[in-house]
Structure formats: C-alpha cells, structure tokens
Write a structure and sequence with these properties.
Helix 2 packs antiparallel against helix 3 (39-58). The protein has helices at 3-19, 23-35, 39-58, 83-99, 142-145, 159-173, 191-201, 213-227; strands at 68-77, 121-131, 133-140, 149-153, 181-187, 242-249, 257-264, 269-274. It has 275 residues and is an alpha/beta fold. The longest helix is centred in the N-terminal third of the chain and has 20 residues, at 39-58. A 4-stranded mixed beta sheet has the order 2-1-3-8. Strands 4-7-5-6 form a 4-stranded mixed beta sheet, with helices on both faces.
Amino acid sequence: MEIDVLKEKIDLLVKKTNFVLRKDLIKLLKEAYLKEKNNLSKKAIYWILENSKIARKENLAICQDTGFPVLFIDVGKNVSIDFDTIFNIKKFLIESYRKNYLRESIVLPFCNKKPTYDGFVCHIDFSNKFNGISLSLLSKGFGSENKSRIKMFPPTSKIEDIIDFVVNSVKEAGPGACPPFFIGIGIGGTQETAILLSKKALLEPLDRPNKDKFLGNLEKKILKKINSLKIGPMGFGGNFTALAVRIKTTKTHIAGLAVAVNISCHALRSATIKL
C-alpha cells in the first residue's frame, strides 16, 4: 500500500473513533431513550445523543478524555505485514491524534513530565477467517478503565459466582464511570488473555445477539441484573445502568478460570477499517 494512502486511512480511523459514535450504540441509546420513564435519566440520554450529533457534525471529540488508544491489528490470509508497515501505522496514528487536536494523555508512571501521544498499546493477531488486514482502534477513557476488574476463579466455580462478580464490579463503578455502560467480559485463557478478550468484546456490534446461544442467554441475564441496580444514566436512576453486555471466551487451564470485566462509559469510542 502506498504510504500516502495508509496515512489517509489511519487518519480516517482516528476521526471515526473519536468523532463518530458507532451506529449500534446510537441505536441502543435511542431505544433506551424511548423506554426510560425516569425524567432525569431520559434527559441524560437525550444529552448524550445530542452531544454525539454535535461531535459528528463539527468533527469534535465525543468526550474531553480522548482516551488511551488501543490498536488491534488483525492479519488475515493471503497477505504479509512487515516492520515498516507497523512502524508507519503507529507513526501515522500519533500524527493524526496531534493533527486532530485530541488531548495528549500518555505519561510514564512516576515521572512528572508533560503528557504525550506516544506510548499507546498495539496488539497483533493472525487469522485464517478473512483476507487482508483489519485495524480496530479503541480509544479507552480511564474513568471507566479504572473501574474494570479481573479475577481468578477456581475451576469449580458456578455461573452464579461469575454473574455476581460482574454485577458487583458495575455496582462498585457506580455513577463515576459515566453510565449507561457497555460491558465487555472475557472468560478463559490466562489473566492477560481474559482482559484482552474483554476489550475485544466491546468492538463487536452490540445491538445484535451473540452467535453463541448459551453466551447470549448469559448476557441477557447479566444485563437484567445490572439494570436492577438502578444506577441509571449519569447516576440519575432509572432502568438503564447498562445498554449491552458482550462475552467472549477461549480455552483455559484445568486449574483455573480467568474472568475480566471491562467497563466502558456511554462514549464507547471505536472504529474498524480494512487495509
């Protein structure tokens, strides 16, 4: 791919992620707005939707916290990727954040230096399920990231134990993490695998049912229990503490069970492009 084309695509990815709320999220917010009976909560959802309209129209950040960029590079069949391509992807992403006046938020721990754009996380994976290269960018705000949780369960744990852990994690997050939430859950693998799955879960279309019926039913059960907390949009109460739950699983060791809960605020900023 020509270098100028790659640069344009990365800039488009950054803009879509930070300026445009995904269609599936807009759909779920609109459905919640129509169903919500609590007046303050209904107004909060309206403000969220209006904010997303202005951001899209004016090319402005959906939230003042423009997040920590988490980039997923998925390499499919019949394609190769080299060091120069990855280097340029990272370089252009940083340039795009700067060019689009997105807030510098990355610092080295324990160093009182000026924040920068450099230092975001990049994950590379390979798949035989598609052709080409797919780039997904998740701009993760830390109001909600700070509330995310990981727990190692015994392999004999019951489903109810996991449900309680997820619901209690949301309860502890409370209104300070800017509900209504989108909840990604990763189950299996090692600790880092489960955490990665919980983030990848948030990249999927959340207005569609899970292809796995068992997981889909579990998601509905968890969502119902979360909404029974009555924290509601921006903490005003009501029926919608969360708008969607998505679970991703993978194989694990016989001696343990990693469960990660990744909480996203209503401004779940992500986008995907193909190279």
